[in-house]
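Re: beginner question about structure tokens

> Can someone show what the tokenized structure looks like for a real chain? I only ever see the sequence side.

Sure, here's an example I had lying around. Input first:
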Amino acid sequence: MNSEIKRRIFVQKEKCNGCRICELRCSFEHETIYSPHLSRIHVIKDEVEGITIPKTCVICGKCIDACPEKAISKSLSTGAIEIDEELCTGCKVCVDACPFEVMRFNSEKNLAYTCDLCNGSPQCVKYCPEEALHFMSAKEFAEYKKKDQEEKKPDVIP
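And the corresponding structure tokens:
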């Protein structure tokens, strides 16, 4: 894969049914326990729109810049955010710096955590029954959305 073209998780909120299977699969993958609280992806409910929205790391890098211990970096292989557990002191500066509220803190382990893309094979994407989650580049996602919308257009009879 070209180092310039990194893949990340994109969300089609209109497809999410709120089942939260993504949260369960993620927590089991990382913590071997089904606990949405420990998931790296979080489904929130937008009461105004009446929809549920999966939220995950968009790899903006604000946490990297904020970490006073330099414990956070981007993976060279996947582009995902990585947290060096040996360097993390549990100060939570990265949690406060995350504009998307997806950097989390495990108080039992005294460690920050966020989506690591499951080493390039995100389980949340794999197990989403509605295919609301996609692991691809921004260009691929734009093309997918365009094609998806074209398929939904009703046939027009001239």
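Each token stands for a local structural state, so reading them left to right follows the chain. The longest helix spans residues 138-152.
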